[in-house]
Amino acid sequence: MSNVCIKNLGITLGGTAILRGLDLAVAEGEFLVLLGPSGCGKSTLLHAIAGLIDANEGSIEIGGHDMTWADPSERNIGMVFQSYALYPTMTVEKNMSFGLRISGTPKQEIARRIATVAEMLHLEPLLQRKPAALSGGQRQRVAIGRALVREAGVFLFDEPLSNLDAKLRSSLRRELKLLHQNLKATMIYVTHDQVEAMTLATRIVVMKAGEIQQIGTPETVYECPENLFVAGFLGAPAMNFIAGHLDVQQQFTSDKLQVSLASYALKAPISIIAGEKMAVTMGVRPEHIHLDSNGDAHGSVVLVEPMGNHLVLWLDLGGQTISMIVNEPQQFELGSTVRFRIDGHRVSLFDPATEQRL
């Protein structure tokens, strides 16, 4: 188990800057998830840690040792790729032990590691099968097992579940989380899937255009996004953004402001110093908007999405469409008017010019 420390990392490929002055510290035993859209640099960062891509500037330390220019074989890492990359003519056992055999690991030690990992990943009945006789989920477990038998200091995962169907992804997510709890190993995981990030990570690193936008626990990143990009990237449906302005209200105590949003005024405690009629963008997640027959706001129904255990209700609010979560089964007619209230303690306010959290 090792920590990873990245300082001022810069990578340019084909004349294009992919990563710019990136700093990141990964603690021992942490499950760190790199989250972001395609092209944001998350896989490039992972490959740089693995030694598959050279850095143009900066340094990469693994376990306290400078590994910036070290060969991948010297970095004590185990890596799981998006594709299974299994040898089709080899059995599961041979696929998992291939790297150990090449490195000259004693046969008895190989057998011990294979037995341990196979039990951990429920692969014992499959050890003598070849990849063609395995399902997609089983093949991915073999690929994970091949990395685990290395007993590396750091395990790297490059979107390992993206090729699987929804049910298999859900199943393997649970297995990976349990695996981390049992091994307490350092894991760095790349994904564009926010569900994977929220369920697996001890900390999430949200990236955009080669730069880190926010680092924090899943709860912090979700509840207190630092900018509009982070706020909009996490959540399904995404956070609602509503333009408005802040007014200091004399009738409230000094730490309370009023957010005026079209015809709706939200009165809530907000710790911020604002000028008169300061422009803001208010962000509110769909689950923090509640049906209320006495609510101060109203909108007309434009779409209803049944999701099984809840509904996603889309409303027209003064020309802008917003979404809300309805947990109780109800019937809504298109075009009908519903009243609602916003949980003022759960909103986020952003500066529309800088897009940063206020």
Q: What is the CATH H-level superfamily of the largest domain? A: P-loop containing nucleotide triphosphate hydrolases
| N→C terminal distance | 39 Å
Q: Please identify, by name, the CATH architecture of the largest domain.
A: 3-Layer(aba) Sandwich
Largest sheet: 6 strands, mixed
SSE order in H/E notation? Answer: EEEHEEEHHHEHEHEEHHEEEEEEEEEE
Q: What count of domains describes the coordinates?
A: 2
The chain-level mean pLDDT equals 88
GO molecular function: ABC-type transporter activity; ATP binding; ATP hydrolysis activity
Organism: Undibacterium nitidum
Domain ABC transporter: 4-234
Keywords: ATP-binding, Cell membrane, Membrane, Nucleotide-binding, Transport
Description:
- α2 (92-102) runs parallel beside α4 (136-148).
- Helices cover 23% and strands 35% of the residues.
- A hairpin with a 2-residue loop joins β9 and β10 (211-216).
- 37% of the residues are buried.
- Strands 6-7-8-3-9-10 form a 6-stranded mixed β-sheet, sandwiched between helices.
- It is of the alpha+beta class and 358 residues long.
- It has 2 domains: 4-233, P-loop containing nucleotide triphosphate hydrolases (Rossmann fold, 3-Layer(aba) Sandwich), CATH 3.40.50; 240-350, OB fold (Dihydrolipoamide Acetyltransferase, E2P).
- This is ABC transporter ATP-binding protein.
- It comes from Undibacterium nitidum.
- Pfam families: ABC_tran (PF00005), TOBE_2 (PF08402).
